[in-house]
Amino acid sequence: MKNVTDSFVSLNHWPSAGSFGFNTDILATNPINLSVVLGVLIYFGKGVLNDLLDNRKQKILSTIRNSEELRRGAIEQLERARALLRKVEIEADEYRMNGYSEIEREKVNLINAACDSLERLENYKNETLHFEQQRAINQVRQRIFQQALQGALGTLNSCLNSELHFRTISANIGILRAMEEITD
Fold it and tell me: pTM for the full model?
């Protein structure tokens, strides 16, 4: 690591430190290039990411509002069920001598049905919220990956000229030939 920092600080490495030239030391230039690429990605990708997150937030809030409306409807059903229960209890007092056990079963069934309905609606709301959150996270990941890939490809295409491309291909061919000779 000391050699990398020395290449930034030491001027002995470059014979003509005062003139313009190309630095071919790959360890010294890669961190600079990566920091420039990351800076550009952060600067230009921030707005797009904020827009995506705002859109997802609005969709999630809309889903929450819909779920709350469903919850209110379930509460209204529960209130109607309770009112019906009160009515059934009054009738139960009138018919207590004839069929107390039958009325009691009806009351329990009504309460269980209302509770089951409320539980199902609550579960549906929670599942919907979880699904929307996962979908939002996946969409944001895909967008970030696409933007990073496009930015990297743009940077590579702008940095590679035909001479550098030819030298890279030649070096890779030489490496492959050396590997082939080693395996033979």
Answer: 0.30
Q: Is 101 within a domain?
A: yes
Upper half-sphere CA count for residue 162 (Cβ side, 13 Å): 0
Q: State the number of CA atoms in the 13 A half-sphere of 30 facing the CB.
A: 4
CA distance linking residue 87 with residue 111, whole number of Å: 13
- Please report whether residue 56 resides in a domain: yes
Total domain count for the chain?
1
Q: Which residue spans within 32-180 are E strands per DSSP?
A: none
pLDDT for 100-125, tens place per residue?
A: 677 778 888 989 988 998 899 899 98
The verdict on residue 24 lying in a domain is: no
Domain that holds residue 92: 35-135
Other C-beta atoms closer than 10 Å to the C-beta of 114 total: 20
